[in-house]
């Protein structure tokens, strides 16, 4: 994570820097003081004070090698945050049912800043498994969840999100042309579901569909993910129907009705 990606015009820039440190340590546990300071381009004294404060609050702790890892206070807050949300609790039974029927891994993801992020994961019973976890962030341009979460946004919001996309070639079929990607979003919205066809990782496919709230806004994306062997070309239409059906059930549970109109 780079502080240049943060809006440092926020009222409390020190808080933003503190969160940047937490995000960096979450991605790369065990980093030492010098690594954190260099990667986030922080002044020596500022980095020292922030790390001390985060350790004092229990958000960070130092391991035996004097590297930093996330503290138990974050585990406590994370558990409380999960308990205060409702969409995860309402979606979980539907993900569990479809995962059990298909023996594929199911996810629920949301838009978090300029990324998609997994809120739920139900593991399928397969010998070969895709490496995902709750809290994992995904690129908007290369993931099926990202496509779904962008496709129903107003054009101005899509413009804002795409300005932060790096257009990195992550897989053999990643879309790296902005206009081609915009055209693809129109197709996603028209068909009602999205496919990540080896765009985020080689040999991995993911199918996602939108979850609407009672106001007709897309608030999440539900998906299945597996290898190209499990999600073969011939199976894509049928599996897409199953994912869309699951997403509709979750949407209905959230109070969405077809006549509410889609945002």
From TrEMBL:
SUPFAM superfamilies with a match to the protein in the record: GAF domain-like (SSF55781), Winged helix' DNA-binding domain (SSF46785)
Keyword Transcription regulation in annotation: yes
Annotated HTH iclR-type domain residues: 12-72
Organismal lineage: Bacteria, Pseudomonadati, Pseudomonadota, Alphaproteobacteria, Hyphomicrobiales
Pfam families membership: HTH_IclR (PF09339), IclR_C (PF01614)
All residue ranges annotated as the IclR-ED domain in the record: 73-256
Alphabetical UniProt keywords: DNA-binding, Transcription, Transcription regulation
InterPro entries linked to this entry: GAF-like_dom_sf, HTH_MetabolicPath_Reg, Tscrpt_reg_IclR_C, Tscrpt_reg_IclR_N, WH-like_DNA-bd_sf, WH_DNA-bd_sf
Name of the protein in question: Transcriptional regulator, IclR family, C-terminal domain protein
Organism this protein belongs to: Afipia felis ATCC 53690
